[in-house]
Specification:
148 residues, three-stranded antiparallel β-sheet, 51% helix, 6 helices
Length: 148
């Protein structure tokens, strides 16, 4: 079985690929062992996507960000920020002041990801009337079948 992170020669455009020295790293998010799965989970999970979306508005300190991402616990926000920082999406700037100050901001890659997420968020928000109607129809059908 081939590794999902193998380096392969590919013909065609370099756009959208992770090309290095004329070769591109072929990642396959559908393959169990592919490292892109973890990053996708960090980006698309509830707290990751909300954190990236919030940081798109600018630089935040931890507690400012926690207030902005309503409902996230301190522990979850901390874990989320660590994962996003490790993936190169968030920059943590710790200043040795008294009291210490830590600011979080998006990296250029994080900004690009956040733009795409915000487009999806806007689309979902714009179609919520359709979603709510579909939920109502689904729930009514389940009730009629005695499955609720």
């Amino acid at each position: 079985m081939e590794s999902s992170a193998r380096i392969t020669e590919r013909a065609g455009s370099d756009e959208g690929t992770g090309r290095v020295g004329g070769k591109d790293l072929a990642y396959d998010v559908f393959a169990r062992g592919c490292p892109s799965r973890g990053t996708l989970e960090h980006v698309t999970g509830r707290w990751g996507s909300l954190t990236l979306g919030a940081l798109y508005d600018g630089t935040f300190r931890f507690n400012e960000l926690r207030r902005r991402v309503d409902g996230v616990s301190e522990k979850m926000l901390s874990q989320t920020l660590h994962a996003l920082e490790r993936d190169g999406l968030v920059h943590r700037d710790a200043r040795p002041t008294n009291p210490p100050r830590v600011d979080y901001t998006l990296t250029p890659l994080g900004r690009e990801v956040a733009e795409r997420l915000l487009a999806l968020i806007a689309f979902v928000e714009g179609r919520m009337d359709d979603v709510m109607a579909a939920r109502g129809r689904y729930d009514e059908a389940r009730e009629a079948q005695g499955l609720r």
